[in-house]
């Protein structure tokens, strides 16, 4: 049997990736290439933020069962340092140009969709409910980022070159998504979590189909960042996350307990 | 006697809630949107169950505060607003009368999803992109319309444009 502590850590993994990606998308506010995109990025970011809040609310409940603390969503988002974050390395990558942002979203959305589809069947009712709800939203995200990869890939010479470069640049961060460590496997075996190793095949199939339609080449490099138990899910992050958190957390750090 | 008074109260609560407009789309109420899922007495306490629309919709908190105010104003001594995630909110719950009012307000109402949840979570569906929905222009009824962006002024709406009357309009996405 997995412990509540392991479940808590797993819930942080589920919540931290959407939170960090939502903050990255928020950085685009006011800088989007056109108004519709500015709005769309913010909407996707808000969905992800809402999902992170649901995961954190549950994580806080689980933590209170084994630790003498009561941490709500704000404490979990604003008062942890980068070593305590459990997000994938992919989502903390800086925004770059629009192709970079869309490639990151595209890789993540396809994985996220598959993950949530599995978690919607979780034996843990609370996980299943949050996943089923989030899945509906992520379906839009997936369609949108897929459309953009095709549009930019099968676009002008310049957009094609930028999209191909972005797809290759971020490729090394995709391996971590399918790398499961022991606690994760234990939760999957109990029917609570998802065995992400099983998502690799459908993910590759899905993204390969889209990249072909986008006239882009699927990267073939095999070396991956953050695998073998030393990645974002274990709290080993790039320095980029620290900078992002400094911006995101400054208000709560400077004025503890401040309310909007 | 107590039974009758309680039954009446539940109806009155539904009526009070039906008077709360959606903060972003004031022509429809939070009841018509399918956000209020239940009203019941549990002993001395009135429990109102609500379900959020989109996880990140900023209107969710405003709606909760509005419901809170309405319950206090209706004279209920003890009440609680409970959030329920499952089954997840769907536009299929929007009342028919509300759909007509949306159209008159300039927002194309959502089509019915007609897709079972079990199908939605079939991994093979991942490559199935939603077919370009035939959305009617709420101004001139033309079906010659085009999606400008999947996201609009609120999380629940997409931006469309009518190719005949050339007006842009909001489309309430089937969800």
Could you characterize the architecture of this molecule?
The complex is a heterodimer of chains A (about 260) and B (about 180). Chain A has about 260 residues and is mainly α. Chain A has helices at about 5-25, 35-65, 75-80, 90, 100-120, 125-155, 155-170, 180-190, 200-215, 240-255. Chain A has a single domain (about 5-255), classed as Ferritin. Helix content of chain A is about 65%, strand content about 0%. The N and C termini of chain A lie far apart (about 40 Å). In chain A, about 50% of the residues are buried. With about 180 residues, chain B is of the alpha/beta class. Chain B folds into two domains: about 1-90, Fe-S cluster assembly (FSCA) (GMP Synthetase, Chain A, domain 3, 2-Layer Sandwich); about 110-170, no CATH class. Chain B is built from four helices and seven strands, in the order H-E-E-H-E-H-E-H-E-E-E. In chain B, the strands form two sheets. Chain B has a four-stranded mixed beta sheet with strand order 4-7-6-5. A three-stranded mixed beta sheet of chain B has the order 1-2-3, covered by helices on one side. The model of chain B is unreliable at about 115-130 (pLDDT under 50). The interface between A and B is large, with 42 and 31 residues.
């Amino acid at each position: 049997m997995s412990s509540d502590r392991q479940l808590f850590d797993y819930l942080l993994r589920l919540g931290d990736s959407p939170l960090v990606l939502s903050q990255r998308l928020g950085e685009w506010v006011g800088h989007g290439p056109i108004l519709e995109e500015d709005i769309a990025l913010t909407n996707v970011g808000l969905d992800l933020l809402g999902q992170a809040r649901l995961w954190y609310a549950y994580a806080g409940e689980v933590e209170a069962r084994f630790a003498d603390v009561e941490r709500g969503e704000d404490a979990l988002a604003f008062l942890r340092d980068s070593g305590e974050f459990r997000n994938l390395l992919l989502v903390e990558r800086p925004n770059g140009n629009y192709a970079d942002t869309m490639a990151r979203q595209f890789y993540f959305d396809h994985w996220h969709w598959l993950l949530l589809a599995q978690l919607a069947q979780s034996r843990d009712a609370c996980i299943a409910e949050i996943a089923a709800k989030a899945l509906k939203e992520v379906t839009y995200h997936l369609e949108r980022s897929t459309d953009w990869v095709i549009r930019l890939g099968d676009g002008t010479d310049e957009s094609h070159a930028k999209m191909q470069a972005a797809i290759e640049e971020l490729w090394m961060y995709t391996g971590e998504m399918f790398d499961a460590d022991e606690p994760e496997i234990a939760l999957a075996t109990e029917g609570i979590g998802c065995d992400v190793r099983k998502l690799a095949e459908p993910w590759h199939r899905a993204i390969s189909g889209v990249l072909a339609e986008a006239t882009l080449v699927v990267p073939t490099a095999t070396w991956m960042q953050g695998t073998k138990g030393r990645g974002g899910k274990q709290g080993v992050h790039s320095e980029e996350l620290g900078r992002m958190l400094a911006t995101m957390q400054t208000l709560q750090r400077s004025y503890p307990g401040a309310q909007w | 006697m107590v039974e009758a008074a309680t039954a009446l109260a539940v109806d009155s609560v539904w009526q009070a809630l039906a008077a709360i407009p959606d903060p972003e789309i004031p022509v429809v109420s939070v009841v018509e949107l399918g956000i209020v899922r239940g009203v019941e007495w549990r002993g001395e306490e009135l429990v109102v169950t609500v379900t959020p629309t989109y996880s990140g919709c900023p209107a969710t908190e405003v709606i909760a505060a509005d419901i809170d105010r309405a319950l206090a104003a209706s004279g209920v001594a003890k009440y609680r607003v409970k959030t329920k995630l499952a089954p997840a909110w769907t536009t299929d719950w929007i009342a028919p009368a509300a759909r007509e009012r949306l159209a008159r307000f300039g927002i194309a109402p959502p089509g019915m999803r007609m897709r079972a949840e079990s199908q939605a979570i079939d991994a093979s569906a991942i490559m199935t992109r939603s077919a370009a929905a035939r959305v009617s222009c709420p101004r001139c009824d033309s079906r010659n319309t085009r999606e400008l962006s999947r996201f609009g002024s609120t999380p629940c709406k997409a931006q469309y444009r009518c190719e005949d009357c050339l007006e842009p309009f909001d489309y309430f996405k089937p969800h």
